[in-house]
Protein backbone atom coordinates (compact mmCIF):
# COMPACT_ATOMS: atom_id res chain seq x y z
CA UNK A 1 0.00 0.00 0.00
CA UNK A 2 1.31 3.45 -0.89
CA UNK A 3 0.78 6.81 0.82
CA UNK A 4 -0.59 9.99 -0.72
CA UNK A 5 1.58 11.44 -3.46
CA UNK A 6 0.61 15.02 -2.64
CA UNK A 7 0.65 15.30 1.17
CA UNK A 8 2.24 12.05 2.34
CA UNK A 9 -0.69 11.02 4.52
CA UNK A 10 -0.83 7.23 4.88
CA UNK A 11 -4.47 6.95 5.96
CA UNK A 12 -7.19 6.86 3.31
CA UNK A 13 -10.82 5.82 2.99
CA UNK A 14 -11.82 3.17 0.46
CA UNK A 15 -13.80 4.21 -2.61
CA UNK A 16 -13.99 1.41 -5.17
CA UNK A 17 -12.23 -1.80 -6.16
CA UNK A 18 -11.89 -3.31 -9.64
CA UNK A 19 -9.61 -5.90 -11.25
CA UNK A 20 -7.90 -6.44 -7.89
CA UNK A 21 -6.98 -2.74 -7.50
CA UNK A 22 -8.24 -0.52 -4.67
CA UNK A 23 -9.12 3.12 -5.28
CA UNK A 24 -8.94 5.18 -2.09
CA UNK A 25 -9.22 8.83 -1.11
CA UNK A 26 -6.59 10.52 1.05
CA UNK A 27 -7.75 11.49 4.56
CA UNK A 28 -5.46 14.50 4.48
CA UNK A 29 -5.91 16.25 1.11
CA UNK A 30 -8.73 14.26 -0.59
CA UNK A 31 -6.60 13.06 -3.53
CA UNK A 32 -7.94 9.78 -4.96
CA UNK A 33 -5.39 7.13 -5.93
CA UNK A 34 -4.84 3.40 -6.43
CA UNK A 35 -3.41 2.15 -3.15
CA UNK A 36 -1.90 -1.04 -4.65
CA UNK A 37 -0.66 0.05 -8.10
CA UNK A 38 1.09 -2.21 -10.65
CA UNK A 39 4.86 -2.44 -10.45
CA UNK A 40 7.12 -1.00 -13.15
CA UNK A 41 6.88 -4.11 -15.32
CA UNK A 42 3.11 -4.17 -14.95
CA UNK A 43 2.91 -0.57 -16.11
CA UNK A 44 5.13 -1.33 -19.10
CA UNK A 45 2.78 -4.11 -20.18
CA UNK A 46 -0.25 -1.84 -19.82
CA UNK A 47 1.18 0.57 -22.38
CA UNK A 48 2.38 -1.93 -24.91
CA UNK A 49 0.16 -1.52 -27.98
CA UNK A 50 -0.49 -5.24 -28.15
CA UNK A 51 -2.04 -5.23 -24.69
CA UNK A 52 -5.14 -3.22 -25.58
CA UNK A 53 -7.16 -3.17 -28.77
CA UNK A 54 -7.87 0.56 -28.31
CA UNK A 55 -4.24 1.70 -28.27
CA UNK A 56 -3.31 -0.65 -31.12
CA UNK A 57 -6.17 0.84 -33.13
CA UNK A 58 -4.61 4.30 -32.76
CA UNK A 59 -1.80 3.14 -35.03
CA UNK A 60 -4.25 2.99 -37.92
CA UNK A 61 -4.95 6.62 -39.01
CA UNK A 62 -8.21 5.51 -40.64
CA UNK A 63 -9.61 3.80 -37.54
CA UNK A 64 -12.51 5.11 -35.48
CA UNK A 65 -10.17 5.55 -32.51
CA UNK A 66 -7.78 7.70 -34.55
CA UNK A 67 -10.63 9.85 -35.85
CA UNK A 68 -11.87 10.34 -32.31
CA UNK A 69 -8.35 11.27 -31.15
CA UNK A 70 -8.03 13.81 -33.97
CA UNK A 71 -11.20 15.50 -32.73
CA UNK A 72 -9.89 15.51 -29.18
CA UNK A 73 -6.55 16.91 -30.37
CA UNK A 74 -8.40 19.85 -31.92
CA UNK A 75 -10.05 20.47 -28.54
CA UNK A 76 -6.63 20.34 -26.87
CA UNK A 77 -5.31 22.95 -29.27
CA UNK A 78 -8.27 25.29 -28.78
CA UNK A 79 -7.72 25.31 -25.03
CA UNK A 80 -3.94 25.73 -25.36
CA UNK A 81 -4.32 28.74 -27.66
CA UNK A 82 -6.49 30.50 -25.10
CA UNK A 83 -3.26 31.09 -23.18
CA UNK A 84 -0.33 30.80 -25.61
CA UNK A 85 -0.12 30.91 -29.39
CA UNK A 86 3.51 30.18 -30.24
CA UNK A 87 6.80 28.92 -28.88
CA UNK A 88 8.72 25.73 -28.16
CA UNK A 89 6.20 23.03 -27.18
CA UNK A 90 6.76 19.50 -25.92
CA UNK A 91 3.79 17.17 -25.73
CA UNK A 92 4.28 14.59 -22.97
CA UNK A 93 2.41 11.36 -23.60
CA UNK A 94 2.00 12.34 -27.24
CA UNK A 95 0.58 8.92 -28.23
CA UNK A 96 0.47 8.61 -32.03
CA UNK A 97 1.05 12.34 -32.57
CA UNK A 98 -2.42 13.69 -33.44
CA UNK A 99 -2.03 16.82 -31.28
CA UNK A 100 1.52 17.46 -32.49
CA UNK A 101 0.32 17.55 -36.12
CA UNK A 102 -2.17 20.29 -35.28
CA UNK A 103 0.14 22.23 -32.97
CA UNK A 104 2.90 22.32 -35.58
CA UNK A 105 0.44 23.55 -38.20
CA UNK A 106 -0.65 26.27 -35.77
CA UNK A 107 2.92 27.59 -35.52
CA UNK A 108 4.41 25.87 -32.49
CA UNK A 109 7.91 24.38 -32.66
CA UNK A 110 7.09 20.87 -31.48
CA UNK A 111 8.53 17.64 -30.16
CA UNK A 112 7.05 14.80 -28.12
CA UNK A 113 7.71 12.30 -25.38
CA UNK A 114 5.90 8.94 -25.32
CA UNK A 115 6.16 6.02 -22.89
CA UNK A 116 4.92 3.36 -25.34
CA UNK A 117 7.64 2.32 -27.75
CA UNK A 118 5.08 1.39 -30.42
CA UNK A 119 3.21 4.68 -30.15
CA UNK A 120 6.46 6.68 -30.14
CA UNK A 121 7.49 5.05 -33.41
CA UNK A 122 4.06 5.73 -34.92
CA UNK A 123 4.28 9.37 -33.85
CA UNK A 124 7.68 9.71 -35.55
CA UNK A 125 6.28 8.30 -38.78
CA UNK A 126 3.13 10.43 -38.62
CA UNK A 127 4.71 13.77 -37.69
CA UNK A 128 8.34 13.66 -38.82
CA UNK A 129 9.19 15.29 -35.48
CA UNK A 130 11.63 14.32 -32.75
CA UNK A 131 9.80 11.92 -30.42
CA UNK A 132 11.63 10.66 -27.35
CA UNK A 133 10.66 7.23 -26.07
CA UNK A 134 10.39 7.45 -22.28
CA UNK A 135 9.03 9.78 -19.64
CA UNK A 136 9.28 13.40 -18.66
CA UNK A 137 11.82 12.39 -16.01
CA UNK A 138 14.39 11.03 -18.45
CA UNK A 139 14.04 13.54 -21.29
CA UNK A 140 17.15 14.84 -22.96
CA UNK A 141 15.66 18.33 -23.25
CA UNK A 142 17.55 21.06 -21.41
CA UNK A 143 16.14 22.71 -18.32
CA UNK A 144 14.35 25.97 -19.13
CA UNK A 145 14.27 25.21 -22.86
CA UNK A 146 10.49 25.04 -23.42
CA UNK A 147 7.69 27.60 -23.56
CA UNK A 148 4.84 25.08 -23.28
CA UNK A 149 4.60 21.62 -21.74
CA UNK A 150 1.37 19.74 -22.44
CA UNK A 151 0.16 16.64 -20.60
CA UNK A 152 -3.19 15.65 -22.03
CA UNK A 153 -4.75 12.72 -20.15
CA UNK A 154 -1.34 11.79 -18.76
CA UNK A 155 -1.15 12.97 -15.15
CA UNK A 156 -3.61 10.31 -13.97
CA UNK A 157 -1.42 7.53 -15.43
CA UNK A 158 2.00 8.31 -13.90
CA UNK A 159 3.22 6.77 -10.61
CA UNK A 160 4.47 10.11 -9.22
CA UNK A 161 2.39 13.00 -10.60
CA UNK A 162 3.85 15.60 -8.22
CA UNK A 163 7.34 14.61 -9.33
CA UNK A 164 6.35 14.86 -12.99
CA UNK A 165 4.89 18.33 -12.43
CA UNK A 166 8.16 19.36 -10.80
CA UNK A 167 10.00 18.02 -13.87
CA UNK A 168 7.70 20.05 -16.14
CA UNK A 169 8.39 23.16 -14.04
CA UNK A 170 12.16 22.65 -14.47
CA UNK A 171 11.79 22.17 -18.24
CA UNK A 172 9.88 25.42 -18.73
CA UNK A 173 11.41 28.85 -19.14
CA UNK A 174 10.21 31.60 -16.74
CA UNK A 175 6.70 32.57 -17.80
CA UNK A 176 6.24 29.23 -19.57
CA UNK A 177 2.93 27.37 -19.66
CA UNK A 178 1.76 24.01 -18.37
CA UNK A 179 -1.42 22.79 -20.09
CA UNK A 180 -3.07 19.53 -19.11
CA UNK A 181 -6.31 17.59 -19.03
CA UNK A 182 -7.58 14.77 -16.83
CA UNK A 183 -10.85 13.13 -15.74
CA UNK A 184 -12.64 14.89 -12.88
CA UNK A 185 -13.70 12.54 -10.09
CA UNK A 186 -15.97 15.26 -8.67
CA UNK A 187 -17.85 15.68 -11.95
CA UNK A 188 -21.61 15.34 -11.88
CA UNK A 189 -21.65 11.91 -13.56
CA UNK A 190 -18.98 10.27 -11.34
CA UNK A 191 -20.67 11.54 -8.18
CA UNK A 192 -24.20 10.62 -9.29
CA UNK A 193 -23.19 7.11 -10.37
CA UNK A 194 -20.96 6.36 -7.36
CA UNK A 195 -23.74 5.13 -5.01
CA UNK A 196 -24.43 2.28 -7.48
CA UNK A 197 -20.78 1.44 -8.12
CA UNK A 198 -20.30 -1.09 -5.31
CA UNK A 199 -23.66 -2.75 -5.94
CA UNK A 200 -23.07 -3.13 -9.67
CA UNK A 201 -19.33 -3.71 -9.48
CA UNK A 202 -19.14 -1.11 -12.23
CA UNK A 203 -18.00 2.51 -12.19
CA UNK A 204 -16.73 3.42 -15.65
CA UNK A 205 -15.08 6.67 -14.60
CA UNK A 206 -12.01 5.56 -12.56
CA UNK A 207 -10.57 2.85 -14.82
CA UNK A 208 -8.04 1.22 -12.49
CA UNK A 209 -5.30 0.23 -13.00
CA UNK A 210 -4.62 2.52 -16.00
CA UNK A 211 -5.66 5.57 -13.99
CA UNK A 212 -3.44 5.48 -10.91
CA UNK A 213 -4.83 8.81 -9.72
CA UNK A 214 -8.21 10.50 -9.91
CA UNK A 215 -8.16 14.27 -9.59
CA UNK A 216 -10.81 16.85 -8.84
CA UNK A 217 -10.44 20.49 -9.78
CA UNK A 218 -9.44 21.19 -6.17
CA UNK A 219 -6.80 18.45 -5.87
CA UNK A 220 -5.37 19.09 -9.34
CA UNK A 221 -5.07 22.82 -8.69
CA UNK A 222 -3.48 22.16 -5.29
CA UNK A 223 -0.89 19.78 -6.75
CA UNK A 224 -0.03 22.10 -9.64
CA UNK A 225 0.43 24.97 -7.19
CA UNK A 226 2.54 22.80 -4.90
CA UNK A 227 4.84 22.20 -7.88
CA UNK A 228 5.36 25.98 -8.15
CA UNK A 229 2.84 27.00 -10.84
CA UNK A 230 0.15 29.66 -10.79
CA UNK A 231 -3.21 28.37 -12.07
CA UNK A 232 -4.56 30.62 -14.82
CA UNK A 233 -7.69 28.84 -16.06
CA UNK A 234 -9.84 25.71 -15.84
CA UNK A 235 -12.42 24.42 -18.33
CA UNK A 236 -15.01 21.68 -17.71
CA UNK A 237 -16.19 19.38 -20.48
CA UNK A 238 -17.29 15.80 -21.17
CA UNK A 239 -15.41 12.63 -21.83
CA UNK A 240 -16.75 11.27 -25.11
CA UNK A 241 -19.99 9.44 -24.31
CA UNK A 242 -19.13 6.48 -26.53
CA UNK A 243 -15.86 6.08 -24.63
CA UNK A 244 -17.60 6.18 -21.23
CA UNK A 245 -20.73 4.19 -21.96
CA UNK A 246 -19.99 2.27 -25.17
CA UNK A 247 -20.82 2.69 -28.84
CA UNK A 248 -24.42 2.23 -30.02
CA UNK A 249 -23.46 -1.14 -31.51
CA UNK A 250 -21.99 -2.28 -28.18
CA UNK A 251 -24.98 -1.04 -26.19
CA UNK A 252 -27.41 -2.82 -28.53
CA UNK A 253 -25.83 -6.13 -27.48
CA UNK A 254 -25.86 -5.31 -23.75
CA UNK A 255 -29.32 -4.37 -22.42
CA UNK A 256 -28.16 -3.69 -18.85
CA UNK A 257 -25.40 -1.40 -20.02
CA UNK A 258 -27.86 0.32 -22.36
CA UNK A 259 -30.15 0.99 -19.39
CA UNK A 260 -27.19 2.37 -17.42
CA UNK A 261 -26.28 4.70 -20.30
CA UNK A 262 -29.90 5.85 -20.65
CA UNK A 263 -29.89 6.95 -17.01
CA UNK A 264 -26.44 8.49 -16.73
CA UNK A 265 -25.49 9.82 -20.20
CA UNK A 266 -27.85 12.83 -19.76
CA UNK A 267 -26.25 13.47 -16.36
CA UNK A 268 -22.80 13.43 -17.96
CA UNK A 269 -23.91 15.90 -20.63
CA UNK A 270 -25.35 18.23 -17.98
CA UNK A 271 -22.15 18.28 -15.92
CA UNK A 272 -20.19 20.97 -17.81
CA UNK A 273 -23.24 23.24 -17.88
CA UNK A 274 -23.14 23.42 -14.09
CA UNK A 275 -19.34 23.52 -13.78
CA UNK A 276 -19.08 19.82 -12.93
CA UNK A 277 -17.84 18.14 -16.10
CA UNK A 278 -16.27 14.70 -15.87
CA UNK A 279 -13.21 15.96 -17.75
CA UNK A 280 -11.23 19.13 -16.99
CA UNK A 281 -8.54 21.20 -18.65
CA UNK A 282 -6.16 23.31 -16.61
CA UNK A 283 -3.58 25.90 -17.65
CA UNK A 284 -0.91 27.17 -15.25
CA UNK A 285 2.10 29.41 -15.61
CA UNK A 286 5.61 29.25 -14.23
CA UNK A 287 6.25 32.63 -12.57
CA UNK A 288 8.48 35.03 -14.43
CA UNK A 289 10.62 35.40 -11.31
CA UNK A 290 11.32 31.89 -10.12
TrEMBL record:
<protein>
    <submittedName>
        <fullName>Class I SAM-dependent methyltransferase</fullName>
        <ecNumber>2.1.1.222</ecNumber>
        <ecNumber>2.1.1.64</ecNumber>
    </submittedName>
</protein>
<keyword id="KW-0808">Transferase</keyword>
<dbReference type="GO" id="GO:0102208">
    <property type="term" value="F:2-polyprenyl-6-hydroxyphenol methylase activity"/>
</dbReference>
<keyword id="KW-0489">Methyltransferase</keyword>
<dbReference type="GO" id="GO:0032259">
    <property type="term" value="P:methylation"/>
</dbReference>
<dbReference type="InterPro" id="IPR029063">
    <property type="entry name" value="SAM-dependent_MTases_sf"/>
</dbReference>
<dbReference type="Pfam" id="PF13489">
    <property type="entry name" value="Methyltransf_23"/>
</dbReference>
<dbReference type="GO" id="GO:0061542">
    <property type="term" value="F:3-demethylubiquinol 3-O-methyltransferase activity"/>
</dbReference>
Amino acid sequence: MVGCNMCGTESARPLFSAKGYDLVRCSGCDLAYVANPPDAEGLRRLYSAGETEYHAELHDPDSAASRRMAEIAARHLRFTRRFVGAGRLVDVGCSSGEFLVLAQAAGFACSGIEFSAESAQQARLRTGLEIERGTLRDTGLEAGSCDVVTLFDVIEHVPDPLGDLAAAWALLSPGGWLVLSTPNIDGLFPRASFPLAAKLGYWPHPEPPHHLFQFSQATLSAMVERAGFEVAGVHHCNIDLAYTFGTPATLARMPKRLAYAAVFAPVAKLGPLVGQGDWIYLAARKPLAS
